[in-house]
Amino acid sequence: MQFAVRTLAPDMSISNLVVDAADALDARRQVEARGLFVSAVEPARAATFAGFGRKGGARLSLVLFSQELLALLNAGLGIVEGLEALLEKEASPGARGVLERLLGGLREGKRFSSALAAQPELFPPLYVGIVRAAEGTSDLPRALSRYIDYQQRIDTVRGKIVSASIYPVILLLVGGGVSAFLIGYVVPKFAEVYHGAGRSLPWMSQLLLDWGQFASSHGTGILLTALLLLAGAVAGVRHLLATGGVARMLARLPGIGERARIYELSRLYLTLGMLTEGGITIVSAIDTVQPMV
Question: What is the pTM of this model?
Answer without folding.
Answer: 0.59
